[in-house]
Amino acid sequence: MTLGSSAALRGSTVAIVDDDEFVRAGLGNLMRSIDVDACLFASAEEFLDEDFRLYACVLSDIQMPGLSGLDLLVAVKARQPDLPVVLMTAYPDARVVERANREGAYRFLEKPCDPDELVALVERFVAPAD
């Protein structure tokens, strides 16, 4: 099923995909601290079952069991090309960065991520709360 790709249909929630429970929780807490709703997913497979229109952007780890963050990126771009995907990893590799850029990642961040940089990125995609 192909979903609409209009940014106007985009939700205001951030999807956080990371197999590390503490990273997921930390990123979720960071989003809540700026009054942004977040849904937390332990795997790419779990997120890919979702309706992408609910989300303003996706923050995903790259190295996860099962589907990787790069696999998630490819699947998201096939279904909703305008949904921004920010990939994060503690183990950057030039080939991975090049592939992420080629596949349409909005940004590639090294862990640990700078919270201010992450907040600035998310605020580009999420409408201000009323």
From TrEMBL:
Residues 13-126 form the Response regulatory domain. One of its GO terms (biological process) is phosphorelay signal transduction system. Keywords: Phosphoprotein. Transmembrane segments: none annotated. Pfam families: Response_reg (PF00072). It comes from the Bacteria. The keyword Phosphoprotein applies. The keyword DNA damage does not apply. The modification 4-aspartylphosphate is found at D61. SUPFAM superfamilies: CheY-like (SSF52172). This is Response regulatory domain-containing protein. It comes from Methylorubrum extorquens. The lineage of its organism: Bacteria, Pseudomonadati, Pseudomonadota, Alphaproteobacteria, Hyphomicrobiales.
